[in-house]
Every structure is written in C-alpha cells, then in structure tokens.
Amino acid sequence: MKMNRREIIKQLALLTGGIVLVPSCDFSRKEVVHAYNKFELSEESKAILEKICNTIIPSDDQHPGAEELAISDFVLVMIDDCYSPDNQKRFVNGLQRFDTYAFEQTRQNFLSMSPSHATELLQNILDHPPSDDQDAHAEISNFEDVRYLVQTTKNLTIQGFLVSEYIMTQVMPYQLVPGPFQGKVLLSENEKINING
Fold first, then answer.
1. Whole-angstrom Cα distance, residue 86 to residue 192?
2. With the CA atoms of 139, 141, 146 and 148 taken in that order, what torsion angle do they form, in degrees rounded to the nearest 10?
3. How far apart are CA 63 and CA 32, in angstroms?
4. Does residue 24 sit within a domain?
5. How many domains does the chain have?
6. How far apart are CA 84 and CA 177, in angstroms?
7. What is the pLDDT of residues 50-97, one digit of tens each?
8. Total-model pTM
9. 20 occurs within a structural domain
10. 159 within some domain
11. Residues 6 or more apart from 114 whose CB is under 8 A from it?
C-alpha cells in the first residue's frame, strides 16, 4: 500500500497534537525535578542533600566547598549506579524524612538552619548508635534511614571531594604518566604531591 506525503504529514500532525494534549504524569505531591535511573527527587530533597554535603565540606576563603564543586551530583550518581536497590530505597527514604526529623529535633527546617546548627544536627545523628532491636517501631526505622542517609552522604562527599578536579589539579596534582621510576626522591616542605598516583 502506497501512502502519499500529504497523508503522512497529516497523520504526524494528529499524533503530535495528541501528545501535547496528554496530561503530564504526577509522580507525587511534590513535583519531581530530578529523575535518575532508579529513583526520583523533588527540588526540596535535592536542596537538602546539597546542604548536607556543604555542611560536611563547607567553603572558606582558601578552598571551595561541596556546593561549588557540585559534590551532591557525585553522591546521587554513585547512589544510582553503585548501590543495591535496598540501599537506594533506604537513602531516598532517609532523604524524604530528613527535614521532618530535623524539625522534630530542633523546631527548625533544615534549609533554614545556620551552618553551626546544621553541623550539630548531623553530628548528633552520626553519634547515635544503630538500633539492635529487631522489633523496632516505624519511628526507629525512619531514624535508621535518616542515619543511613547522613553516613552514606558523608562518605561519598569526602570521596567526591578527594577525586574532584580541584583536588587533582590544584591541591595534589595527579600525573597519569609520572615518568621513569625514581627510588629516592627528596620532597620540599611545600611541594604538592598526590598520594593516589
């Protein structure tokens, strides 16, 4: 069966118009703005993660912090690519419950906290020992997810910072091919070296 060009264009126009009229999917009450392969985040959850990372490695006059180096993106890619579905679920659950937990503990939303209060909250979460109770209530389970979020984010933030372009090019320059082997090398006191090389 042979179709002429006019008929094909007409059908494409109808199809395109139909797609435009289809209502968008509503994933949750909060709009999903960041969709990874295995989970989705709202704008608020992304902002909370960014603040957690920046609380762990803040910027100062001499060095950029996690926010300037986009470490939260590194954290999310690592969670999406390298963690099991169960741990991804724990991470996302912890992130969704984090602000509620922060408000219960401090009567402040995490995003409105000062750097010192945010640091104190994260330290209190990390200092709280994991529960050994097998019959833990939902509140304890939620806290364990929050604790898992903070501990995992801390580990990945440090890892992401140490392999960032800033560290590898300015603080401890990395040489892919360092040259011939030298058994004994004298180092000056201020020389920048990369221990990962």
1. 41
2. 160
3. 32
4. no
5. 1
6. 35
7. 999 999 999 988 889 999 999 999 999 999 989 999 999 999 999 999
8. 0.70
9. no
10. yes
11. none
H or E element at residue 157: helix 138-162
Reference 109, options 40, 54, 154, 51; nearest CA is: 51
Tell me what pLDDT residue 170 has: 79
Measured distance CA(148)–CA(21) in Å, rounded = 42
Of 116-130, 164-178, 180-194, the range with the lowest mean pLDDT is 180-194
In a domain, 86, yes or no: yes
Residue partners of 87: CB distance under 8 A and separation at least 6: 79, 148, 152
Which ranges constitute the DSSP H helices of 28-128?
43-56, 71-82, 85-106, 115-127
Token pair of 96 as six digits = 């969704």
Distance CA 125, CA 154 (A): 12
